[in-house]
Amino acid sequence: MFSTILMFVFSYLLGSLMPGFWIGKFFYHKDIRDEGSGNVGTTNSFRVLGTAAGIVTLALDLLKGTAAGLLPLLFNSNINPMLVGVAAIIGHTFSIWLKFKGGKAVATSAGILLAYNPYFFILAISVFILVLLLTSMVSMSAMISFSFAVCASLFYHDLVLTIVTIILTIFVFYRHRSNISRIKNGTESTVPFGLYNSIRQNRHQ
């Protein structure tokens, strides 16, 4: 019982680590909460701090989710890694280091999937990249890839995977509610590549 509680505490603390915020603070002397979208995750790190910082933030957000998912292996526990990983998502969203505020947990959630089922992770990330290349929108790609993950999980006949994936998808949509409004209004931020971005640039030439 004590080891189980310890796993969840460690998972939450791992999720609470905010590389985007700290990279911006210590290396760029910027608080990314005051710029761009104000989010402390990967997308705003790319937007405010640049490509290099964005890549590092993405990798670290992904890895902390994977580390959280591997805690049952470290503790020699039979508890499902997806359940332990939920604590990391809570930590990322409500970080103890940022007065219980945080990011949208997309990369961290993907990292947990990587720890639990690498093949499922590859499938989900492939959909994310495909949608990003078509829509040029990270928010759209995240929501569609998680929705696809719910459908794909049904073929794995893994009840825990399906339930947690559904919860994560609902959570991702909730955290992206302002993005959904901007998508409807045609004002959502885009990455500087992809089909949609190319079409929009051609229209303004």
From TrEMBL:
Enzyme's top EC category: transferase
The protein's Enzyme Commission number: 2.3.1.275
MF terms in GO: acyl-phosphate glycerol-3-phosphate acyltransferase activity
GO cellular component: plasma membrane
Gene Ontology BP annotations: phospholipid biosynthetic process
HAMAP family reported in the protein's UniProt record: PlsY (MF_01043)
Protein name (record): Glycerol-3-phosphate acyltransferase
Source organism: Leuconostoc gasicomitatum
